[in-house]
Each structure stands twice: as structure tokens, then as C-alpha cells.
What we know:
78% of the residues lie in helices and 0% in strands. The protein is built from 3 helices and no strands. This is Four helix bundle protein.
Amino acid sequence: MGDIIRAAFAPKVQKLPTLERVRISLEVIKHLVRTEHELRIIDEKTYLRIAELIVETSKMTNSWIRYLMGNARPPAQ
């Protein structure tokens, strides 16, 4: 996930395209992990942990994208 680090250090105008690539990469990873689980390559516990990390990273990435687009939501209370 070098693109996340690139986005952190990129000028503001270059962050959005980089984060869009990150979002696509996360979706691809999510589908690959699901396929691995369905084929019993990884067990249930491993699948759930990886899926949790992917969801968490996706939420952070989407929040960052919303912020850059000026549609940031207020923090949860």
C-alpha cells in the first residue's frame, strides 16, 4: 500500500487520484480475500480479521477522500 504513503506526502491536488487508486486496490483485495476464504485457503478466523482491517482502512480512505472533496462529515459524538 505504497499509495497511502504517497498520498500522505503528495501535494493536495495529487492526493485525490492516489486515494482513488487506493480505494480500487482495497476492493480488489477484499474480493481476493473473500475468494480465498470460499476456497478454504484461509480459515474463518483469519478471514474475519483481514476483512475487519480492510473495512477499517476503507472507511479511513473514504473519509480522507470526502475531506479533500469538501464533503467532510462532522466527527461522531
